[in-house]
Amino acid sequence: MSKVANNYGSFPVVFTKGEGAVLTDTAGKTYIDFVSGIGVNCLGHNHPALVKALSEQAAKQIHISNYYLSDIGLSYAEELLRETGMERAFFGNSGAEANECAIKLARKYGSLTGNPDKKIIVTLEKSFHGRTIATLRATGQDKFHNPSFAPYPEGFMHIKAQDYEALNALPQTVCAVFIEAVQGEGGVNLIDAEWAQALEKKARELNALFMVDEVQTGMSRTGSLLASTRLGLTPDVITLAKGIAGGVPMGACIFKGKAKDVFIAGDHQSTFGGNPLACAAASAVLKELTKKDFLDHVNAMGDFLRKTVSGWKLDCVKEVRGRGLMIGIDITQSAGDIQKKCLEMGLCVSTAGPNTIRFLPPLIISQKEIEAGLDLFKKALTQ
């Protein structure tokens, strides 16, 4: 019996290795991976460029603390900021850490405006921003607000996506608006570009920061390096994690413009943040993601996957939606039950609600692997 705390409700399968989009368990059974560590293993498993970068960096330097600078940390920050158009970077170890950084940055920005009450951070209903106390409170889903963890911090308000009237009701005490470009844990919900642009405009009118949580959508998951770009948005602050380092724990909060000089030494720190090993991994990942035709492949595979499932015309499939290789499928059955059936058949999938199956396969997955995975998924739905 596992001695690991059962926080995750893990399935009774133990994986020993992975290659590309395929996992192998202790019995030698193989599984097609449509989860990729919940969008983390963007280059799949055992990618040669990532393995090489990690091996070489581990032989030189793993950690030095942020009292000092590392060569790979400096060069990776330059690479990431150049590709994203941002001006400053803070590196942490997870998406929740990145979002905590954004929350603190927003609150300090509000105080610097001269209005001591400018502390409200606006997020969306059905959003998800992490599992720390502050990021749970930022999350716009009551099911995550376990009363056992109360009291939660104040200073957050939630509005409905696509609600134009809600924009006009936002008070002057808003210091930041914080949204996901696609809501992942909330059900793979797409945000309307025109409404998102109106929300950004409203944030500007309120002299508030406009921040986008790209923890799950960023790093090419939705078919562009940043999902906010596809929506025509120009955030002051962007948070990244999951696929940023291909499986090595890392998160980033990147910012620019009026947000770039808010923090000073001591405002926000992380012992392991931006360590050389993580930065080497992230640099290797970014080089792969920005290669010619990489995004074309992501978009082509995403289109193929969505069209294939839609083309089945099954009564149990209510809707197929998504961008790139971030896909949600609403079904009439219990998503949890179908997830278990898929696993038994040799397919790893995740859920995003009681009746929503979520696909987050490695971005390097082949059409042949998608076809094989979808054959198993169809059987799970119909047998």
Output the helix-strand order.
EEEHHHEHEHEHEEEHEHEEHHEEHEEEH
- What would you call the structural class? alpha/beta
CATH architecture of the largest domain: 3-Layer(aba) Sandwich
**Quantity of strands, as a count:** 17
The CATH superfamily of the largest domain appears as Type I PLP-dependent aspartate aminotransferase-like (Major domain)
* DSSP strand content: 15-25%
Name of the CATH first level of the largest domain:
Alpha Beta
Fraction of helical residues: 25-40%
Largest sheet: 7 strands, mixed
**Residue-averaged pLDDT:** 97
Question: What overall form do the CA principal axes indicate?
Answer: globular
Give the low-pLDDT segments: none
**Arrangement of strands in the largest sheet:** 4-12-11-10-7-5-6
Q: Give the N-terminus to C-terminus distance in angstroms.
A: 32 Å
Radius of gyration from CA coordinates: 21 Å
CATH topology description of the largest domain: Aspartate Aminotransferase, domain 2
Features:
383 residues, alpha/beta, Aspartate Aminotransferase, domain 2, 7-stranded mixed sheet, 4-stranded mixed sheet
Short summary:
It contains 12 helices and 17 strands. By secondary structure, the protein is an alpha/beta fold.
List the helices and strands and how they pair.
Blueprint: E1 15-19, E2 22-25, E3 30-33, H1 36-39, H2 48-58, H3 71-84, E4 88-92, H4 95-112, E5 120-124, H5 133-138, E6 156-159, H6 164-168, E7 174-180, E8 182-183, E9 189-190, H7 193-205, E10 209-213, H8 227-230, E11 237-240, E12 251-255, H9 276-289, H10 294-311, E13 317-323, E14 326-331, H11 335-345, E15 347-348, E16 350-351, E17 356-359, H12 367-382
Helix pairs in contact: 2-9, 3-9, 10-12, 11-12
